[in-house]
Amino acid sequence: MKSKICIFAGTTEGRQFAALLKDSAFVTACVATEYGEILLEELAGVTVKTGRMNACEMEEFFKKEKFERIIDATHPYAAEVTENIASAAKRAGITLMRILRETQGKIPNAVYVSSAKEAGEYLKERKGKVFLTTGAKELSEYGLAPERVWARVLPSEASIEACREAGIPLSQVIAAQGPFSVEMNLAQLHASGAKYMVTKASGKNGGFEEKIAAAKSAGVQVIIIGVPPQTEGYTLDEATAVLQKEYALQTQHIDIIGIGPGAEQYLTLEAKNALQACEAVIGAKAVTDMLGGVNVPQYHAYKAKEIAAILAEHASIRRAAVVMRGDVGFFSGAKKLLAALKGKEVTLIPGISSAVLLASRLGVSWEDAAFLSLHGREENLILRAASARKLFVLTDSKNTPARIIGELCAFGLGEVNIAVGERLSYDQEGITKGQAKELENKHFDALSVLYIENENAFKGYRAGIADEAFIRGKVPMTKAEVRAVTMAKLAPSSDAVIWDVGAGTGSVSVECGYAAPQGQVYAVEKNEEAIKLIEKNKRKFKTDNVHLIEGAAPQALEELPAPTHVFIGGSSGNLKEIIAAVLRKNAQAVIVVNTVTLETQAQVQACAQEFGFTRFEAVCLNVQRAGAVGKLHMMQALSPVWIFTLSGGTPLC
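The chain above was modelled as a monomer; its predicted structure follows.
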């Protein structure tokens, strides 16, 4: 049989507990006013008792209804009511749970007073209008001239009547139910023209933080009526944990919401309904600020671990909305957050991505497009732009449209067509079109979307690029046939981290760049002429994932990230030291060593034994190419190349 619980529920916390317990127990919610009753009407199954009671009346009521538990969730300043509840519960022999609001630290530059009367005395000595946010009960205690006062009170007849009795013009009365957002507080402060705001330290659920933030923004002096002494009790989350265990309450539900590009009209109906139903909103401040009139507590975080920690800390939040810009399945933090919230009840609510919105504005399809986000991350933009006919790119304050367009031009992609979508969905929306070279050096919003169209995009990658395709000097270069076999032995994954040690002209680096379009290639070279050739070939082949590292190995390898694959085309007699450097970073890396000398062959075999490689393969490649001799053609041999493949070595510290 269900338990019977009585909640004194004239506050946000009280309503939360009524909603939390109504399906697991018979709940009676006691409120002092008819307005409090109205706020609880939507909670089906909750019995509401309206009217004030003294301690004796409470005791009689508790015994008559045979409650198992009393929950005191009254306002922290309702000291007399709290004392009466505690006395009545004790005499009736019923378990009492007192809910304590979180108190605030001291606010810099605020004036602290002990009462409304003291606040009034302070203000009488000063000029300027006063914005009172402490309710209607104490209006007469301030003793201020009515024309100076703007009062924010509950939307009830009793509150309006109290304002009339205090002589405050109704044009200076704001009758509304809080808590209020920073923006709403700020708008009301501006409307009142107030120089002072009076508040109580009512905790997070009372909207205290939002009031302080708005006053600071408006340059308004804050007067705080001091925090009452705290009695023994439970925080909201401690109480929730106890009740969860005793009454097997419903689990916490989290809606992860994609809010779209930003403007309210692009928020889906499903998202609006979820925001209307939630008890708290979590998200980056820039995102929560887009929501406007969602008047529930807000917590600012965007990292998965931080969001999960907030939800764990605030177990009393039964339904939370985590908001993310755009769509939850498109370069969103939802993927990591889902992993962090494993085991919880989660709903994903999609939104409209800015890339899809730009596509609709341009009248282009996006099912055959590639997508890339440079928002808070680094990607191989040039290689993607060179190989995709259609590419959408999300930008940020570091990877701005101007920087991206400049990079495209620097890599010989100045003739690709670009559309830059700025402030999409807002009244100031703008779309600029043109070739990259035409838009170079123009300024655009950092947070934009680029659409890049490349009619000359190359399709696919073929191992063994022709030798004559590379810019060459007097530096030795790995020939096409050898490169093809070398790449087959390396077999890098698409996101591999590759070291090309002794990179020469950069021919292997370029092929590695193509083979690992989501990876990174580090071309290590000490020869000055070779360094220049690598840079030229990198730009010619548009492999921006190739990074030139100037210096001799193994010293130049120390600061590089751990490799998954390593090609050693030249070691300058330091083969053992180079392999040791690899093993210190990643003993499972695949190492391919090419050599034409007997001495290096011997060194490779010695290293294979010394470092205990579990895989050791050797291929001797003899290549002959047809060459013209007069009117005839004869085969002409290239130097034999030994290609060694090693992996599974002994880890080194």
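DSSP finds 23 helices and 31 strands in the chain.
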